[in-house]
Amino acid sequence: MRIFRLYQIDSFTKNKFSGNPAGVITNADGLTENEMKKIARELNNSETAFVFSSTDHTYDVHVRFFTPTVEVPICGHATIAAHYARAVEQQLDTTRVRQKTGAGILPVDVIREENDYKVVMRQGKIEFGSVIEGENRDFLLDALHITDQDLLANCPIQVVSTGHSKVMIGIKNSILLHQLNPKFEALTQLSKRLACNGYYVFTMDSAEEDILVKGRMFAPAIGINEDPVTGNANGPLGAYLVHHKLVKHDGSSFRFKAKQGEAMERTGTIEVEVQLEKGEPFEVSVSGKAVIVFQSELIL
Question: What residue ranges carry the coiled-coil annotation (predicted)?
Answer without folding.
Answer: none
